Amino acid sequence: MPHDYLIIGAGPAGLQLAASLERDGHDYVVLERGAGPGTFFTRFPRHRQLISINKVHTGYQDAELRLRMDWNSLLSDDPELLFTRYSERYFPQADDLVRYLSDFASATGARVEYDTDVVQISRGDDGFTAVDHHGRAWQGRRLVMATGVSQLHVPPIPGIESAERYDTFDTDPASFTDQEVLVIGKGNSGFETAEALMEKAAVIHVAGPHSVKMAWQSHYVGHLRAVNNNFLDTYQLKSQNTILDGTVESIERQSDGRYRVMFRYARTTEASRELFYDRVIACTGFRFDASVFDDNCRPALVIHDRFPEQTAAYESTTVPGLYFAGTLTQQRDFKKSTSGFIHGFRYGVRALYRILATRYHDETWPAERVEPTPEAISDAIIARVNRSSALWQQFGVLGDVVSANGAVALYAEEVPVAYVADGGLGDARHRFVITLEYGPDHDKGDPFDISVPRVVENDAANAHDASYLHPVVRYYRDGAMAGVHHLAENLDNRWNLPTVHQQPLAVFVKECLADAG
Q1: Measuring CA to CA, which residue among 511, 464, 471, 478 is closest to residue 495?
Q2: How far apart are CA 46 and CA 196, in angstroms?
Q3: pTM of the predicted protein model
Q4: Which DSSP symbol is given to 238?
Q5: How would you class 55 by CB atoms within 10 Å of its CB: exposed for 0-12, middle for 13-18, buried for 19 or more?
Q6: Model confidence pLDDT, tens digit, residues 442-459
Q7: DSSP assignments along 400-454, one per residue
Q8: Of 372, 375, 393, whose CA–CA distance to 383 is shortest?
Q9: What secondary structure, in 3-state letters, does 451-464 show?
């Protein structure tokens, strides 16, 4: 008999979903190709230092608030099951995460079949069949892909097959002593690699066609992180390292073992330039591996075929019953929020579980009753935005929702905003959707340039022009947006000042309900 759910992958996302299914007694199985949980992190990042922060000493006593600074813990009912107990390093080691995931799987009772490499997935009238490398067939009414982006992206550069690859190259810096090295790729893997080689290599060039984007400016943590950007300093201070802006047009391995690379600069009109290196390493990112799917259930791919296309419910747009969890869900907020990372998708997985529960198990989205008065609603909103970790991490993607019909008001937490817009919570006469968001121009200009005027903190009159993270409350009347209220920026992220935050919000809610009749 088929399981209700087949989950492919026992990484953080697969374990997060399994923990919820196990807790509530659902029928599922997780299939994992590796010998234990978190196989991806046994190899990546190659230099073993994570870029997900692990701030142990926050000064907060509230466990929910501490999760704002803990980017590696999964969600569970056990307050002891936190990654912060495994390392005190701000940027911890990948091996610590592997150890944590193994303990999480054991503690939550996740039902995982290890050493089970799925090589083919098909779909029939009763659901999905996954065949593993042993020839065993596993059946499930619904399928959840939690495999992450496991396939190295190899760009179509002539000769790139002769280059070394990020996933397999020898990471020992000593092997690069006095060599000239080209790193293809301006992402964190490229700069992680360049940084690791700086002490030994003679010359390092990091090349790519796009501008380097800094995470501290864009607020997208997948852009270049400060922990990996020492290379920029060496480049600008002319210390034998260079960033090449342009396109690698061809790579040729010569008879002497060196590489001849034809490169076209993006900022000049000159013809291709001939460059020579001892080593070339492709650090060109990863993508979703859809090769295991039969044609009748191969999901549509988007963003240059890097990710499966998904609905607001994390379901394939072309294959009903096929869902996605974890870093694959960043297709929904690509380079805008945090669904590509544990501290973001752990909440997305919880939302997926609630979606599955409402669709297939006759449940409703968890919600608390609040008095349908402006004061009670605004107080509930203020309390949540000052405490929620989910809204903080999944800014602009997850929102709290207050739905009011007559004498009843329900407060639902952590709902995908797009899911609400698609009618996932049903109809409501009055509805408030609460998110944390950056302003639309938050990534423009230099945030450290004091000559550029900006909105002053706690400026309620100009809160709508705020660029830093702040709460936004949107009001919908019978499904149509009828008002927007921004709460003023606050340097300490405390949006609870009576005259600045609380009173203006209460007035907005009162006006919305009054105008509606």
Answers
A1: 471
A2: 10
A3: 0.95
A4: T
A5: middle
A6: 888 888 888 877 777 888
A7: EEEEEETTEEEEEEEEEHHHHHTTTT---SEEEEEEEE--TTTTSS-TT-TTS--
A8: 375
A9: CCCCCCCCCHHHHH
